[in-house]
Amino acid sequence: MTASRERPESADAGEVDRRAALAEALAAVRARVADAARAAGRDPAEVGLLAVTKTWPASDVALLCDLGLDAFGENKEQEGAAKAAELAALRPDAAARWRVVGRLQRNKARSLVRWSHAVDSVDSARLVDALEAAAAKAVDAGERSDPLEVLIQVSVDADPGRGGAPVADVPDLADRVAACDHLHLGGVMAVAPQDVEPAEAFATVWEVAEGVRAAHPRASALSAGMSGDLEAAIAHGSTCVRVGTALLGRR
Ligand SMILES: *Cc1c(COP(=O)(O)O)cnc(C)c1O
What we know:
With 251 residues, this protein is α/β, with parallel strands linked by helices. Helix content is 48%, strand content 18%. The chain contains 10 helices and 9 strands. The chain has helices spanning 2-6, 8-39, 58-66, 77-90, 109-115, 125-140, 170-178, 198-215, 230-235, 245-248, and strands at residues 48-52, 71-74, 97-100, 118-122, 148-155, 165-166, 183-190, 221-224, 240-243. Strands 1, 2, 3, 4, 5, 6, 7, 8 and 9 form a 9-stranded parallel beta sheet that branches. The longest helix has 32 residues, at 8-39. Residues 1-8 have low confidence and may be disordered. The protein binds pyridoxal-5'-phosphate (PLP).
């Protein structure tokens, strides 16, 4: 109170500027998504937007909520847990849902299921089992009621450093998730490897996603495309682009 009375203009001006910058960036990203969808003969409404807010403060997430976004991604469990709690205090009525998009250690599963709606980066049977056990405990403890949504992260080049399951392992992992009582198989996610043409990588990912859908018709999500390559991903069937830099700026 006192502080804002002492410096009302600078404090408010900063937030007004940030809100305007985010609104402009969001409009530009939505236009890119719509153009890419139309160019591919798709309905822009088929492509969701996940704002990847890693390294940015909860105040930015609150402004993005005000601008109509409701899906936010974090790549670190601890940072996401803290930000989700801050957002709940800043915007108690916001219908925000959080997704973890980064590599996850199994010992973080129990904390994650308290605040996250989904994990997009599941790439091993051991992680599936840890998430199922954690989600079951969270339901028993009354900490969540809905199943944890899971996407299988596909590694196009099978480089173990970047995360993701090799293409050949995806069907078994999808079956394993689908058999879990407290997990919901949503589909697949991928990050295009740096040394492969994005279009080529996303074409492979689309085939993998089609295979998963054939076995599990409700697992229709294909999360692909980031600030630099969302057009190529949308051309190859992406149903969700994960955008950080183009919305919030350079990290
Ligand atoms: C950081 C991150 C993004 C967003 O990347 P930008 O290039 O900043 O849009 C998307 N997906 C994952 C898995 C990420 O870690």
